[in-house]
């Protein structure tokens, strides 16, 4: 007998970072699991990661993969927690030996949004606008279309970032739409940047659940809360990132979504940090995984690796 009987109450420990967004996402997963299973007790275990502790450096400066995940991964490895909830965007594609990406619930909005108290949207910004963003992808994508914009680094949790907008006199900041929606700060959004022009980060807007390999018990509990379409889309995006060796330190975006006719569309974007050299592939079809392979092959053919600085 492997499945616990329904009458037996089971406790599952979910690991989470402590930020408001991380806790929102973890509570969301906990609620979905409790809804899907009678007699499941969910306990949330919070911890700080390197990315939470070091706030005075940019992400590429801190360097390395997994700066938001390593501490949670140690807890997974020792079974101190049964699953870890991440922003999928922060979960590297190559995971430590013995751990795996278990899937995602339904994705929220994947786009980036512009927030400004001075201007009504991106095309209204002055030529010398000062934009704050910690993301080299956002910077490169904005520079590709608006080469005269100036940039300032921006780190910290969402609340801190919003405070800095007026305090430092920035013209705008750019953040993930999903984060603002989840924290009920949708009102602060000045405009959403269209995903077919400003291609979002791989996995943006999706929650990623990580588990230890061999935990079939946890996989069985997760099965009813996973969203097939989301997993297919983000898996294609993660293939693009993995093949192009893109972490958060190279300007790379990939966005896969269903189209109105029931097919799929994949946008893959790579650029140089200054936005001067850009490749953007758009594919449609019915197999996201195959479309990812094709996008990578085309991008590599057109020189993606040299643009990203890998050769
Ligand atoms: N790297 C930080 C991070 N990781 C996930 C999100 C937002 C939520 C998401 O994309 O799912 C953010 C903030 C941001 O990009 O503005």
UniProtKB/TrEMBL annotation:
Record bears the keyword Hydrolase: no
Naturally occurring in which organism (per UniProt): Persicimonas caeni
Keyword tags: Porphyrin biosynthesis, Transferase
Role, per record: Tetrapolymerization of the monopyrrole PBG into the hydroxymethylbilane pre-uroporphyrinogen in several discrete steps.
Keyword Transferase in annotation: yes
Taxon lineage: Bacteria, Deltaproteobacteria, Bradymonadales, Bradymonadaceae, Persicimonas
Protein's name according to its UniProt entry: Porphobilinogen deaminase
Subunit structure: Monomer.
EC number(s) stated in the UniProt entry for this protein: 2.5.1.61
